[in-house]
Write a structure and sequence with these properties.
The chain is an alpha/beta fold and 413 residues long. 49% of the residues lie in helices and 16% in strands. The protein has 16 helices and 13 strands. The strands form two sheets. The protein has a seven-stranded parallel sheet, with helices on both faces. Strands 10-9-8-11-12-13 form a six-stranded parallel sheet, with helices on both faces. Helix 1 packs across helix 16. The mean pLDDT is 91.
Length: 413
């Protein structure tokens, strides 16, 4: 058995939802397999109590070295810091390479690429480009980056992406569709591409009848209410309007539909937004809850359907929604639109959910009719059908395989 010394570089904080759900579990698993891990991350100052009580002990138990950059609290300093962060990452990473002597740099997504590329080239350390989705395309296609400033951001990160695909020793994508698109890029250097979808800790995300009963009572849901869950952001990448319209279409079918929004949401904002689409949502028809990640399985068990409506653009083929794996692992049928990553592979038949061709009113009305009369599989069956695809151990085995390849190169050198 061989192991690798790796520095994992991320612009996310280990206390963030992504850090807790999609970074720490992988790093802990890689450490348990013998790899030596150091992490360079960007942390939020308002989460330091959580860091001290929960995250730091986990890192210590796993033997993971952590070198955090702490964001500033003030809004003005935070805005200025955005421009200084590449230099901060570069300086900190350069020092960490000297102290830790890694065999490989592991770059999560695009934000740290400038630092990783420079240090990799200057210090002759290979790197993994764990690109997640097509981040530059997502931000351009959704309108987040627009105008002269947006175009300058896009040009900068497009150049970094081109360099990364030309110089990386391995690339990781979230979907098979993304693998095919990366392999067709002119700058791609024919290095190995590993597909590792967003995974789920299935010891925690699982159907639980007792949790369902207690949390439905706690949240005020009746026995005949059909609860539609939307987990996570309602930002520009997501079609939250389709969520409102499906809720209304189900009501028109005589279904007592309730909307459960899990994350940083305010009911009034959504009631106002729904009104803008000609849909009335009563105070008793929408419930917003922001909870720690460990409580998300409880809320999902209280729901009946998991919704994942996303903007469909070319970049959507690279997306692997964590929420979909969490819904299905809890046994919830998923309602999604087509054109999102490998969704047709994830939801292959109507027993475990519906993949809609589009999100027009007619599409959503047809979906409401199917939902009102559907016989979805049992929660345990749905979970069993998707367990392998979203299994955390399987994802960690794939990451381990990538790391082993660097360890073998070190031995052969």
């Amino acid at each position: 058995m061989t192991y690798t010394r790796s520095i994992f570089v991320t612009n996310n904080g280990l206390t963030d939802h992504i850090g807790v759900a999609q970074v720490l579990p992988y790093l802990e698993a890689l450490s348990s397999r013998g790899h030596k891990i150091a992490v360079l991350s960007v942390e939020r100052p308002d989460q330091q109590d959580l860091y001290r009580t929960e995250i730091a002990p986990r890192l210590a138990r796993a033997g993971i070295v952590h070198s955090p950059i702490l964001r500033h609290r003030s809004s003005l300093a935070g805005k200025l810091e955005r421009f200084a962060m590449p230099s901060l990452l570069l300086s900190r990473l350069d020092g960490l390479v000297t102290a830790f002597r890694p065999d490989v740099l592991h770059c999560r997504s695009y934000m740290p690429l400038g630092a990783v590329l420079q240090v990799s080239q200057r210090r002759a350390v290979p790197f993994v480009f764990d690109m997640r989705g097509f981040w530059v395309d997502e931000r351009c296609e959704s309108g987040i980056w627009r105008g002269p400033v947006g175009r300058s951001y896009a040009l900068h990160f497009r150049r970094l992406e081109t360099q990364a695909l030309a110089k990386a020793s391995a690339v990781i994508t979230l979907t098979e569709d993304a693998r095919e698109l990366v392999a067709a890029r002119a700058s791609y250097n024919n290095c190995p591409i590993e597909v590792i979808p967003c995974s789920v800790d299935q010891t925690r995300f699982a159907p639980d009848r007792a949790l369902r009963q207690s949390w439905r009572k706690q949240l005020g849901f009746g026995i005949h209410d059909v609860v539609l869950a939307h987990l996570g952001s309602a930002g520009p990448l997501y079609r939250i309007d389709a969520t409102y319209r499906l809720t209304a279409a189900l009501r028109a079918q005589g279904v007592r539909s309730k909307l459960l929004l899990i994350g940083d949401h305010r009911a009034k904002d959504h009631i106002d937004a729904a009104n803008g689409h000609g849909i009335t949502l009563g105070d008793n028809e929408i419930l917003c809850r922001q909870v720690p990640h460990q409580d998300v399985p409880s809320l999902l068990n209280a729901a009946d359907l998991g919704l994942s409506f996303r903007v469909t653009k070319p970049s959507s083929l690279g997306a692997s929604a964590t929420k979909v794996g969490e819904y299905l692992s809890c046994g919830l049928p998923v309602i999604s639109n087509a054109g999102i990553g490998d969704i047709h592979r994830v939801v292959p038949d109507p027993a475990i959910g519906l993949v809609l061709d589009g999100l027009s009113d007619a599409d959503l009305q047809a979906a409401a009719t199917k939902i009102a009369t559907a016989r979805f599989a049992s929660r345990s069956t749905i979970r069993d059908r998707v367990a392998g695809r979203f299994d955390l151990d399987a994802a960690c085995d794939r990451y381990d395989g990538v790391y082993q390849s660097f360890a073998q190169r070190k031995q052969a050198a």
